[in-house]
Amino acid sequence: MALMACLLLPALCRADGSDARPMRYKMDYVSGAYLRKSGSTLHFVTADLEWPAWINAGRPQTLMNHLAAKLFGNTDFAVADGFDRYLDSLGEPLEAVPDDDAALNKVYHTLELKLVEYSTARYISFRIMAAERNAKSHQVRSMVHHIFTYDIVNDRILGKTDLLRKICFEGNVAYYDFMNLVRLQTPSEYWEDERFYSMGFPQEFCLMNDGLVCDLGFTTYDSPANLLVFIPYKEAYDYYTKALKKLLQAEARLNPVEPVAAQTPASEAVDTTMVYNVAEENPVFQGGQDEMIKFMTDNLRFPPIEEMLEIKGRVVLQFVVERDGTVSTVSVVGPASPGYDREAVRVVKMMPRWTPGKIGGQSVRTRMSLPITWKPQ
């Protein structure tokens, strides 16, 4: 496999915050480890979050509320604000573990929000995982594992009965046929391992590549366990509701997206806190364009699913080159696939310091756009 990246022309990495394609969603990414202290308790937080700042030129409140409720139990704030408030609720921030930590109670928090699939102007699917574990008792105090699909056309969260016909559920004629289909798609070791002694109807579903992802929710001797199983579109189609078939077959309706306006300052006043889309001297990667191409191709790796299926795609990133040359606020504004998007974000976050953009001789924060084309060979 080889990577064909659209980095060969300097004009393609540009400080105008734009791209030739219309942007259909903007995905923001936050990942890291955080330490908080509240009284005699230390809270260790690991977060890996990706959420839509907007979809198809809008901010669907139904989706935003659902994400915030499942992650933080609060729908009053956007996901980004909700995460900040969640951290604040755990106490004061610490730079390092205190020396007397042996006497402190320790609680470990894990928050994960992942894009599963985006079908242009039709639907978007996510997976959420949130867990809280006490270090002394090893007890999991709370656990959320949730997969779902948001119907962009009709502005609603799709549940089981929105995706599957009534005949699929227990007590109906196609129940055993559907469960046999699920079983056929499940790795045999889960049926042969005696630890997995019970499996009921899949707990939740979401759409992926127009196929169906099932959360089986096995019961084990130790604790509940989640297993995601994919049923291909052709296999699952007969079980879909009429409304879902209509959604999948409908022509995508795209709302117009306003172009990003160039932000240029008055020559006599440069605001060093503002993010500019155009600078008098644009940011430069260390060593220039050729070194950036080498850095990207040396570090980018094909995600397993995309490599296996030989999926082609083009992802467009936006990021800010700060006044000190560091890269921040990396977003996807032109998606290729969840795997390609994540990998591109990961590598851009690894970039060394740039030479920052300048206006009137002063270093300024500058927004850059960078397209990358993935082409397995």
Q: At the first level of CATH, what is the class of the largest domain?
A: Alpha Beta
Count of helix runs? 10
- What does the average pLDDT come to? 83
The name of the CATH topology of the largest domain is Heat Shock Protein 90
| Topology as a string of helices (H) and strands (E) | EEHHEEEEEHHHEEEEEEHHEHHEEHEE
Which of globular, elongated, flat, extended, rod-shaped describes the shape?
globular
Provide structural commentary.
The chain has 377 residues and is α+β, with helices and mostly antiparallel strands. It has 2 domains: 144 residues, TonB (TolA/TonB C-terminal domain), CATH 3.30.2420.10; 222 residues, Fervidobacterium nodosum Rt17-B1 like (Heat Shock Protein 90), CATH 3.30.565. Strands 1, 2, 3, 4, 5, 6, 7, 14, 15, 16, 17 and 18 form a 12-stranded mixed β-sheet that branches. Strands 8-11-12 form a 3-stranded antiparallel β-sheet. A 3-stranded antiparallel β-sheet has the order 9-10-13. The relative contact order is 0.16. The N terminus is likely disordered.
